[in-house]
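Sequence only, no structure available. Ideas?
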Amino acid sequence: MNLTNAERAEVLTQALPYIKRYNGEIVVVKYGGNAMINEQLKQQVMEDIVLLWLIGVKVVLVHGGGPEINDLMDRLGKKPEFVDGLRVTDKETVDIVQMVLAGKVNKTLVNLLEMKGGKAMGISGMDGCLIEAEIKDERLGYVGKVTNVNIEPITDLLEKGYIPVVSTIGCDKEGNAYNINGDTAAAYIAGALGAERLIMMTDIDGILRDRHDPSTLIPEVTISDIKNLCDEGVISGGMIPKVDCCVEAIHKGVKNVIIMDGRVPHSILMEILTDEGAGTMVSE
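Reply:
I predicted one. Tokens follow.
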């Protein structure tokens, strides 16, 4: 799209109230899915995060990496297993998860943010016992239930001007590593930070009245609306645990949570810097 200089100036002027509003505020972005697989989208997401960081937003990037984990397991001849949508994680699998998330994926994202002009530092939930966990369900092996968040590693990085990039591996006091659901980890981290906003980047537009029709997007819901939508079957299947994480985040002190389609270019900027926003906002 070709804009004149005057149009460019107008766009920036319209963004000014939002820049002022979010300057110095903490925004947690949960990143994964197709927005992570598609290289062009990945570049745009990193650009958006650096832009927000440059205008004074304290961005915390919490990431998953399921497809990358599946890819390495496949190359190692290990077949992924799932129970109720959660990855069965034996000792060998948790080692793979740790290698992929805390290693390759985390450092790739840090490098991209640095290349875009940001200042980023990668950590895992094991660093500084950031995410303490215990076994969630014996059937799942080393899949963790979050028991505590020690937020200081993230706040220290924010104070020093970094974009923290967090991989969702937890640990216990016996030194065991745990695979933590990315949405759950993001909710707990955002809550512990008292974040202004948690942005959940997904593969759908948000909460839809008809999941086959994007025009039925519900732009805003409250916690009390959610129960009714679940009873009506509007929120069902894989959306239920995602919405549960939104509610958890709000109960823990996050102002509001956005469920948005991470496949839409610059959706983060549309949400933070425009009237229209993007996706569905969940609030108290």
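The radius of gyration is 19 Å.
Hope that gets you unstuck.
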